[in-house]
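Before drawing any conclusions, I looked closely at one protein's amino acid sequence and its backbone structure tokens, quoted below without any editing.
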Amino acid sequence: MKFITTKIQQLFKNEEVLKISKNIGWLFFDKVLRMGVGLFIGVWIARYLGPEQYGLWNYAIAFTAIFGAVASLGLDSIVIRELIRTPENTNVLLGTTFYLKLSAGLLACAFPVIIIYVTNPHDSYLLWIVAVTSAQFIFLSIDTVDIFYQSKILSKYTVIAKNSSFIVFSVLKYLLIMYNAPLIFFIYFTTGEVILASVLLAISYYCTVETKINWKHNFVIAKELLNQSYPIIFSGIIIMVYMKIDQIMLGNILGNKAVGEYSAAIKISEIWYMVPTIAISSLAPFLTKIKMENQIVYYKNLQKLFTFMLWASLIVSVIFLFASDPLIKILFGAQYAHASMILKIHIWSSVPVFFGSAWSCWIIIENRQKITFITHTSASVLNIALNIYLIPLMGVTGAAVATIISYAVGLFTAMTLYKAKIAFNFLKNALILKF
């Protein structure tokens, strides 16, 4: 932790560095706790359920996640930006965001249930799993509080609230394993964790905000926010499609066991996506302010972010080339042996994901969200096409190969469409370790 804070202070010499460093420290604590405890419980659940049932659960998660993108409405980064620019409108911005997210959450809960009912009318068990899983989207409207905390670089309150719920339900899931509970109870408790976290987050906001809480909905602001965010909404759906379509197609083509093996591998691989999440959530408000003050300093700090993201992802990918075999064997056991090769391939998706996160941060700050819809749509179509071709040809590993290719093509397309020369200069400078 001290090493990370020191490096950040060296890279970003600014009066707000200490506040940013503390915020990153809290987010790092959040991700490490979830990575540690969550991985332990998640692996134990995977071993307990076996590839077949674990695959069924992850199939439902992947399917509902596509609609979950609707629940957020792509508003978070835009509202954070507006809260920084117009703090006098805080109550109206938060109130409008809350009601928009609540409405979207209800739709996101209903759509997957309707689709499963229509396409699989005789599979009542799958229908119920999808219904319980998607119910959590309704409560994500409370994450409006987290948007407020992010704008103030005060993520510690979100971390405390959500991790309190996480720890409680991790213990409960441990007890489910001890008492040989069926799959559906794990799904109940997963949704219950989201509900408790939302309640604790609301209580946290009530206790920490000094001014009177007076959230108001404003139709004009709602229209303005949606006008800015609709490219992100569609992009979010598209992102979820090309992040989750591999599991859905594996389930439809090869069955739930293949989904279970694949999910075990990407559970390890996608843990490392926490790195760009932490960095971007803390640095985006800082970079937004710097852009308004000094363009030269703004681009210098962007370069530092791009360089860090690229090399962090390369180092992680190389390490897992050698660590995958023993890691999968120790964590998941012999029944998930095929997951090792999947992990060796899929881990390389972190390179376009890390670098693309920095690029997306830049796009949001520059208010060029429409570009993301074009690039993510093309990448999603490519991913579906590659999965259709590669899964029958290569089996489960074909889905991992399709993921890497589509992520990389999407990133390079995006860089080409917006300020290509600057974008590829970021990449060139990052490759030569220029900060």
